[in-house]
Amino acid sequence: MEDVHGRSGLAFPMTLVVMQGLILIIWTLYGSYAPDAEGTAPSPSSSSYTATTLYQSWLGVHIMMLFGFGNLMTFMHRHGYSASGYTFLVTCLGLQWCVIMYAFWHGLLGEGKLRGPTLDMTMLFQGDFGVAAVLISFGALIGKISPTQLMVLCFLEIIVYAASEAFVSEVLRAEDVGGSMVIHTFGAYFGLASSYVVTLPSMVLDGLDKENRASYTSDMFAMIGTLFLFLYWPSFNAGLLDSATNQQERALVNTVLSLAASCLATFLFSKGLRGHFSMVDIQNATLAGGVAIGSTCNMELGPGGALMVGLAADGFGWREGMGEEEEEE
Amino acid sequence: MEDVHGRSGLAFPMTLVVMQGLILIIWTLYGSYAPDAEGTAPSPSSSSYTATTLYQSWLGVHIMMLFGFGNLMTFMHRHGYSASGYTFLVTCLGLQWCVIMYAFWHGLLGEGKLRGPTLDMTMLFQGDFGVAAVLISFGALIGKISPTQLMVLCFLEIIVYAASEAFVSEVLRAEDVGGSMVIHTFGAYFGLASSYVVTLPSMVLDGLDKENRASYTSDMFAMIGTLFLFLYWPSFNAGLLDSATNQQERALVNTVLSLAASCLATFLFSKGLRGHFSMVDIQNATLAGGVAIGSTCNMELGPGGALMVGLAADGFGWREGMGEEEEEE
Amino acid sequence: MEDVHGRSGLAFPMTLVVMQGLILIIWTLYGSYAPDAEGTAPSPSSSSYTATTLYQSWLGVHIMMLFGFGNLMTFMHRHGYSASGYTFLVTCLGLQWCVIMYAFWHGLLGEGKLRGPTLDMTMLFQGDFGVAAVLISFGALIGKISPTQLMVLCFLEIIVYAASEAFVSEVLRAEDVGGSMVIHTFGAYFGLASSYVVTLPSMVLDGLDKENRASYTSDMFAMIGTLFLFLYWPSFNAGLLDSATNQQERALVNTVLSLAASCLATFLFSKGLRGHFSMVDIQNATLAGGVAIGSTCNMELGPGGALMVGLAADGFGWREGMGEEEEEE
């Protein structure tokens, strides 16, 4: 039986070959560039839009995936090394797969027919959003599943994620610009549900708790991850919004204010209730502030409203967090 | 009495609640979006300007605040952990407060009346400039003041900083694009002055010097901070300049050349006078080269002129620095 | 005789003074801003182009130089500290020098006359491309040459690099958008050739192999470097392409897909042939995937084609890599 580091067996290479093979065949037979990435004609989009601008925002999201989400997990000292590698694995696999599923479900639910995947910067955004959902789920499963199981999780979750996302936007026609519902909440519950199913009994009995403590080095890496999350969250929330109207700028500044308020509130709770600053708390506050403002960040909340969303998010987050009582050295 | 880590007392939470409460009330009652972040009409600005472009430059400044300025301080090994946390605290608090003060003083000195704060990407730049001044002052005070005192410093310094900045630009009508005078010089002297006033006697008597030495890990983090300063300083100097004329590009390339020359000169002095490369020297050279070119970076210095500014900056910086004689392991 | 850390002798400061002096004189006497960085008139370029957009892409390339290329080398534990410093040295020196050589050779081979260097964001790109070639060569020489020898290598290699690059583009009129041939292949062979010539015999006899092993900390820094390479490689390949046509967006998405496929394939080989994940393999895969797609990234390969390039690149890379048999703790 494969252990958590997946050191033996043919399961991993065979699973990877099958998945990458399937993805390659679909992209080769049915895939194409989107119109704005094809041919040599001038870009059909407006002059205020360039691929580079979109690419820079996407870079921020990609940095969040590889650094932020990966390094939050390296907090768990012993898992640090594998957590970063597994994040890489999920990102490379999920990105390719999620663009296919996005086209499939949006074609089916939106136009009632099958549609091949198209490729441009916007689709890379959609691909990373699916990766985000899987990485959030992975947070509930780290140390409990093998690399092979992680790939299977990634493959299956993205099918369900893309169906859910297409249902919300094509059928319900609901707006969820920052993906608070379809990405973050979905990913969290999918991960919790999976953790009841996919568990290696030997690992749970093993003393995992003692591996969950912080060291100076892993704290520092977690800090780097937290800073990147804090820095690039506005890219995540506002990157795909129309830059020709004012709502993109509003989404950016609302997210920045909400994050600042949420983190300040955490300094309050962290010292008030624990007696000292905790790195974990700042991480949780960043996540809470970014997710809370996500769905409404493009609306006219007013600066005061954005601050209140951040402050409230942190209050709620703390009611959850205190149960865990993370202890640092 | 609260110690330097602020482990006891109600002073910290109460100060934070009062400050964040005051800021929240002002933003809610008097704050609003700037025209380019309000409504759903197309952006009034020219087509070559998008909020995302400005946001990307602002991101560089924000990275400098959280990584560069914070990690320079982590050079002091034992303070590394708290220095990063305190940088976070100052950034979240100062950003919100400085935009309010900016509107207040520019309204008073520029238009002779009170003005409520407005929010858009440009204002987030102005907010981070105030944060920069406080973080520079903090460099002279680290290890000597408690978190509560740091918040009070942040609150008061930003009032004076914003008044000074508004006076220079509205009354003197002087140009200081990179903020060399109103941000860097102001912050340094404010910090030096404060260090005579706000000092915990017990901490100074304590053997701080032995905590000031480098370790391999903290050196590496200082290196990361230095690299980010070196990389993003052009964003700091040129981010707010008009991109419709050529002066923004000139400011960018002038700053890049000045930084390169300043760092090369440091390799010379560092080896020539010390006999080996010192990480601290490269940090100081980056700061010197970036600050020196700041006020004049948009002018037609010529490429040779930009190089000379960087080389000269480093020479002057070294006369100061040699007194310290930092020793590394 | 100067040792590998260059602790003694006047060779280093004198070499640096002569080189920086020569560069300063050339820039001062013959250098000028390019038209788009001069004067106060509106930028002559199209409205969809701004200096900031180009600057953001260039930042990615600069990050690759300072973080990625530097930290790949820190994998070698004992050299980590000096490798980062030397990368800094090469970047600051090579950037200034390569822009001069670019103008010289393009003037000579393209227009048949001498041309003074011009400065704008595009030229900073060209400067960093030369730095990339030197850093690649340095990878074959680390631990074997002194800082002084490194500066001489940088100076000479850039003369040859710029001549080769100008020959390919001006005389052969061949397109090599990502520089796979003129930068990466050139740099690798120049480094290999140099390693036969410039070697300190004492260092080679010394037990360098035992310094070549990984530690947890240096692995983590290598991981950060790898992530930055993976993230910013699209900037390297597509940054200078015309954003008014669709080929820039195509180059961006092709590079992203190729990198993802190349890294996935490495997970396969790394586990299949070694039995565990290796950080070095992911680094090599990123390099292989980015270089392989470089020359053709703007062409209409189709999404499937881009994936195949990445997968094939990794296969070839592995045939080379297995000979080394890097061992990790």
From TrEMBL, chains A, B, C:
Q: Which UniProt keywords apply?
A: Membrane, Transmembrane, Transmembrane helix
The membrane-topology field of this record reads:
Multi-pass membrane protein
Q: Which GO terms describe its biological process?
A: ammonium homeostasis
A GO cellular component annotated for this chain's UniProt record is: plasma membrane
Q: Which GO terms describe its molecular function?
A: ammonium channel activity
Residues annotated as domain Ammonium transporter AmtB-like: 46-313
Q: Where are the transmembrane segments?
A: 12-33, 53-73, 85-105, 125-143, 150-168, 188-208, 220-239, 251-269
Q: Which residues form a coiled coil?
A: none
Looking up Gene3D superfamilies in the UniProt record yields: Ammonium transporter AmtB like domains
Give compartment(s): Membrane
Q: Report any Pfam family annotated for this entry.
A: Ammonium_transp
- Where does it primarily localize? membrane
The similarity comment for this entry is: Belongs to the ammonium transporter (TC 2.A.49) family. Rh subfamily.
UniProt protein name: Ammonium transporter AmtB-like domain-containing protein
